[in-house]
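I am writing to request your help with a piece of structural work I have in hand. A protein sequence and the C-alpha cells that stand for its backbone fold form the material at issue. Please examine both parts with care and let me know of anything in them that strikes you as inconsistent. The record follows directly beneath this note.
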Amino acid sequence: MEVSTDGATWKPAASGTIDATNCRRYNAVPASGDTQGTRYVRFTILGNQVPDLATRCPAGSFDGCSYTDMTEPEVFGAAG
C-alpha cells in the first residue's frame, strides 16, 4: 500500500501477503509507515493468492487461484 498527500508523490505505508487461507473475508493490512496528511491510498496486486496453479487448483478456477480479484478496500483513520 502506498499513501500520498497530493495524488502525485507516493510513499510506502504497508505491505503484506494475502494467501488462499484469506479468501472470502476482510483482511487488515495495518499501515506501518508515516501516514500523516494522507489524502490518497493505492495498492498494487502483485500476483494471485495461489501461484502454483498446476498442483494447488485441481478443482478449477476460484477466487485467487487462476485469476486475481478483490472486494472494495476500506481505509480507516482520523479526519484531519
In short: The first strand starts at residue 2 and ends at 4. The mean pLDDT is 79.
